[in-house]
């Protein structure tokens, strides 16, 4: 855009604010872009000092004499039906709410971030991702406030570093997309081009609706549908279930997330899906297949997250909350759970799904 405007004799200036560093500014010793996160992060974090945020301009020079539309008249908000109640309850958009959220996070939750960030039932992360995506806060503002918080509270310094490292993943995703735009649509590892994806619309629909029969997956998909958000740990579990248990192409899952997430971001979403699928840059290996029951028991031991999003399971004993099919009939009856009635049976047995996924992977390894 800059080049074509300049060619048309416009004066062009741009001001970097949406990333910690522009994608072409961070380079390996050999001058090439990074493909692996850890050295990228080392290079990014050592570009000290991070430029401080600039104060807001006192006055903006605006163009005069240009007719404008009335935004309200565009009727952008859903009315008939109004499906956005859950979004409104969960979020207050805007620059000021973003700043307030950052201040509250740095004043409290950040101290436990290192350990608690993987527990979806607690409000342990910043929830700044939609504000970042929509430009309501800049990563440089976050960086400078977080550094100040670490200086004021040295006991929180390691948690603050863990938090800033996550922000580094966001920059890394944009770095990858800038240098390899095809990462949004093509398998980064081309051996996955031969992967035998299942074209199963019914299974895909069950996943989108949170009807897989695995409570941690279903709770995540319902949180997403209602609030436009899903906790990072649960995103990984739910995405892995689609790609590995149901063998459905990661691009279908990514597109659903883009339809429903309030923080849907091409760079982060697509690289994260490839990471989960095993097809991406610096990805989790395909053969590491999450067991949704064990993941649930580890990160939601009392089932508080599941109960919050699946009211039909709310009264189930914690011992069975991540595997209702293993509960004795009396426990189900006491909790009002009817398997195959108000909550589904698991779509597929975990051990079978695991074996099937590994066999599919072996196929592409052999042909590759
Ligand atoms: C399959 C999948 C899809 C995802 N899609 C998106 C997406 O569309 N948009 C998006 O912003 N994030 C996405 N993420 C990353 C992550 O889940 C969210 O950024 C995070 O949950 C946002 O919550 P938070 O703001 O409380 O994060 P915090 O833990 O407070 O982290 C602070 C900031 O760091 C960045 N960040 C955190 N985790 C990651 C990560 N794993 N990768 C890249 N950046 C990260 C975000 O900008 C976040 O706001 C996805 C993850 C997975 C596994």
How does this model look, in words?
By secondary structure, this protein is mainly alpha-helical. The protein folds into 2 domains: 18-49 and 87-179, Serine Threonine Protein Phosphatase 5, Tetratricopeptide repeat; 185-368, DNA Cyclobutane Dipyrimidine Photolyase, subunit A, domain 3, CATH 1.10.579. Helix content is 48%, strand content 0%. It has helices at 2-7, 37-45, 85-90, 95-107, 113-116, 129-133, 139-152, 157-179, 201-209, 215-227, 232-245, 250-260, 266-277, 292-299, 304-309, 329-335, 350-367. Helix 2 packs across helix 8, helix 8 packs across helix 13 and helix 12 (250-260) runs antiparallel to helix 13 (266-277). The chain is globular, with a radius of gyration of 23 Å. The mean pLDDT is 95.
């Amino acid at each position: 855009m800059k080049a074509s405007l300049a060619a048309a004799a416009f004066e062009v200036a741009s001001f970097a604010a949406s990333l910690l560093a522009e994608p072409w500014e961070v380079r390996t010793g050999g001058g090439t872009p990074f493909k692996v996160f850890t050295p990228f992060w080392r290079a990014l974090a050592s570009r000290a000092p991070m430029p401080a945020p600039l104060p807001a301009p006192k006055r903006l020079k605006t163009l005069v004499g240009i007719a404008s539309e009335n935004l309200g008249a565009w009727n952008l908000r859903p009315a008939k039906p109004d499906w956005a109640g859950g979004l409104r309850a969960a979020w207050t958009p805007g620059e000021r709410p973003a700043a307030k959220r950052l201040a509250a996070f740095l004043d409290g939750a950040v101290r436990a971030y290192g350990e608690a960030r993987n527990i979806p039932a607690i409000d342990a992360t910043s929830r700044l991702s939609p504000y970042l995506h929509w430009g309501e806060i800049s990563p440089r503002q976050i960086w400078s406030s977080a550094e100040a918080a670490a200086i004021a509270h040295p006991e929180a310094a390691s948690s603050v570093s863990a938090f800033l490292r996550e922000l580094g993943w966001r920059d890394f995703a944009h770095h990858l997309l800038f240098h390899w735009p095809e990462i949004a649509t093509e398998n980064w590892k081309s051996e996955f081009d031969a992967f035998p994806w299942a074209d199963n619309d019914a299974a895909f629909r069950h996943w989108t609706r949170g009807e897989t029969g695995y409570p941690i997956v279903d709770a995540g998909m319902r949180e997403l549908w209602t609030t436009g958000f899903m906790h990072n740990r649960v995103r990984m579990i739910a995405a892995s279930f689609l790609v590995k248990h149901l063998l459905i192409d990661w691009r279908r899952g990514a597109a659903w997330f883009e339809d429903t997430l309030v923080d849907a971001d091409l760079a982060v979403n697509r690289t994260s899906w490839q990471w989960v699928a095993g097809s991406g840059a610096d990805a989790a290996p395909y053969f590491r297949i999450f067991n949704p029951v064990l993941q649930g028991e580890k990160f939601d031991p009392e089932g508080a997250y599941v109960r919050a999003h699946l009211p039909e399971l709310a009264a189930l004993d914690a011992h069975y909350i991540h595997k209702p099919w293993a509960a004795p009939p009396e426990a189900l009856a006491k909790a009002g759970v009817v398997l195959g009635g108000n909550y589904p049976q698991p779509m597929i047995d975990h051990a079978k799904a695991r074996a099937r996924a590994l066999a599919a992977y072996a196929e592409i390894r052999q042909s590759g």
